[in-house]
UniProtKB/TrEMBL annotation, chain A:
Keywords: ATP-binding, Hydrolase, Nucleotide-binding. Signal peptide: none annotated. NCBIfam families: 5-oxoprolinase subunit PxpB. This is Allophanate hydrolase. It comes from Arenibacter certesii. InterPro entries: CT_C_D, Cyclophilin-like_dom_sf, PxpB. Transmembrane segments: none annotated. Pfam families: CT_C_D (PF02682). Residues 6-208 form the Carboxyltransferase domain. GO terms for molecular function: ATP binding; hydrolase activity.
UniProtKB/TrEMBL annotation, chain B:
The keyword Electron transport does not apply. Residues 23-278 form the Carboxyltransferase domain. Keywords: ATP-binding, Hydrolase, Nucleotide-binding. Signal peptide: none annotated. Gene3D superfamilies: Cyclophilin-like (2.40.100.10). GO terms for molecular function: ATP binding; hydrolase activity. InterPro entries: CT_A_B, Cyclophilin-like_dom_sf, PxpC. SMART domains: AHS2. This is Urea carboxylase.
Length: 245, 278
């Protein structure tokens, strides 16, 4: 794989921002993830360092220590240029259940109307696409998903809602996502995901990581309620498929 | 246990922060004024990571249910122990049944209560800092009890400390943020010549400023933000992210506050003036 023309920037005294060309592309994201793995394995160790990848950037934060940028930046460039090419092998495709019932999908009919689609076609399109996780942020466990089909691109709501319920699945512009907790929000709500996206009790509070893929599949209200109970007692089994196998 | 008789306006348990989960969208949290937090822990000869109470604007009323030693710091909030005034940055012995309460806010905005060996509320994702939905709640509530280990004997090496709290300083030292170079001459002029004031929208997540500068229409891909990152919105509003601030954002990050300046800003309230100094 080719090396990109990347830039390094000081960001405060403890942080370096690395930027790739400004593109939403899977190849860029993969190159970032490869660099992260190379750094973690050979040069910048956890927990002293934190790695925050998102779209075309990688932010490297060093706990406490004031960094020597004049030394570290050329060093990082060298590490990037000489990194050993290994394929990323730990990505997963997560299949997430969504109840597209109007009880949860409060904007479903309205959004279908705006898109000149039938409700069933909207659901079929949303659930057939495979989305890439380009970042996690805004709220704990909130995924920035890329890969929304053009036919589903709809403007955000003119007036944001003060309260979007936890689990709401929504679309706006080129994005779709799940609200991991109750929060204000301006996206069009088309359903609810029965799997919690964030759980602080778990060692890894969010099972998804940047670079993974997401596919939604429709479930009935009955299945939705069953999943909630299964999650509560801890017997729900996630559907995941290993990528890069 | 420390019994909360009255919770005050917004009181939380905080330590030095929750690291290692920013890639999952979990902010760092931790004491807003890390200088004051570190000083009360130092007086008590605690570990750096010992959890303290962060008390915002209006103080709580607290009953100690076991003997221990405490130290107060940060904002001056007219604290009294059993109705006798107690001062900041001093080791104070407390007995079972003692009541600590707070009065008028004299200076600053956030006061700290350190306790010998720290509060021992649940450790979640490596930190005791309150932050919903990591912790169950965002702040303490009436009649709950916060655990700590009783201490009978402690001979502090230093019992009192003079602290240069800098509470009245209006000047915030900043570094260039990642999108600094995109600023126009007019924006730069406004940014460094204007006096700004803290808006009523100020909390542990972010401080907004009342005065605007020329807005920015720079289109950005979402990227990481840090505590102390100053964002510029399309309407020209300035938003300074604080310890509970979101870990990613899509607005240009024009400035980055020095750590010490985050501490200074944490002691500002609505209407207080600030200036940026590069």
């Amino acid at each position: 794989m080719k090396n990109y023309n990347i830039s390094f920037r000081q960001f405060g005294l403890h942080t370096i921002l690395v930027e790739w060309p400004k593109k939403v592309e899977e190849d860029v994201l993969l190159d970032i993830l490869k660099f992260v793995r190379h750094l973690k394995k050979n040069h910048l160790y956890v927990p002293e360092w934190e790695f925050i990848p998102a779209y075309n950037s990688l932010t490297l934060v060093c706990r406490n220590k004031v960094l020597n940028f004049t030394e570290l930046i050329p060093q990082l460039r060298e590490w990037y240029n000489n990194k050993i090419e290994e394929d990323i092998t730990d990505r997963h495709l997560w299949r997430l259940p969504v109840c597209y019932d109007e009880e949860f999908g409060i904007d479903l009919v309205d959004t279908a109307h705006k898109l000149k689609l039938s409700v069933n076609d909207l659901i079929a399109l949303h659930a057939s696409s495979v989305y890439t996780v380009f970042g996690i942020g805004f709220l704990p466990g909130f995924m920035y998903l890329g890969g929304v089909p053009e036919a589903l691109e709809v403007p955000r709501k003119a007036t944001p809602r003060a309260k979007v319920p936890k689990g709401a699945v929504a679309i706006a512009g080129k994005q779709t996502g799940i609200y991991p907790q109750e929060s204000p929000g301006g996206w069009n709500i088309i359903g609810s995901c029965s799997v919690p996206m964030f759980n602080a009790e778990k060692e890894d509070p969010c099972f998804v990581k940047v670079g993974d893929k997401i596919q939604f599949y429709p479930i009935s209200k009955g299945e939705y309620k069953l999943h909630l109970i299964e999650n509560e007692v801890g017997i729900y089994k996630m559907e995941k498929i290993k990528l890069d196998a | 246990m420390l019994k909360i008789l009255k919770p005050g306006f917004f009181t939380t348990v905080q330590d030095c922060g929750r690291f290692g989960y920013r890639d999952k969208g979990v902010p760092v949290s931790g004491v807003m004024d890390s200088y004051a937090g570190a000083k009360v822990n130092a007086l008590l000869e605690n570990e750096e990571s010992a959890a303290v109470l962060e008390i915002t604007m209006t103080g709580p009323t607290l009953e100690f249910q076991a003997d221990t030693f405490i130290a107060l710091g940060g904002a001056e909030m007219t604290a009294t122990l059993n109705n006798t005034p107690v001062s900041n940055y001093k080791v104070i012995k407390v007995k079972k049944g003692d009541v600590l309460s707070y009065g008028k806010l004299e200076s600053g905005f956030r006061a700290y209560l350190g306790i010998k060996n720290g509060f021992t509320t649940s450790l979640l994702l490596g930190s005791r800092s309150f932050f919903f939905p990591v912790t169950e709640r965002n702040s303490i509530k009436s009649l709950e009890s916060l655990p700590y280990s009783p201490v009978k004997e402690f001979a502090p090496k230093i019992s009192e400390m003079k602290v240069d709290a800098d509470l009245d300083n209006a000047s915030l030292k900043v570094y260039r943020g990642p999108e600094f170079e995109e600023l126009t001459d007019r924006q730069l002029g406004e940014l460094f010549s204007k006096e700004f004031s803290v808006a009523k929208e100020n909390n542990r997540m972010a401080y907004q400023l009342n005065e605007t500068i020329e807005g920015s229409n720079l289109s950005m891909l979402t990227s990481a933000t840090l505590p102390g990152t100053v964002q510029l919105t399309p309407s020209g509003k300035l938003i300074i992210l604080m310890k509970d601030g979101q870990t990613t954002g899509g607005y240009p990050r024009i400035l980055q506050l020095a750590d010490k300046s985050i501490d200074i800003l944490a002691q500002k309230r609505s209407g207080d003036s600030i200036r940026f100094t590069l």
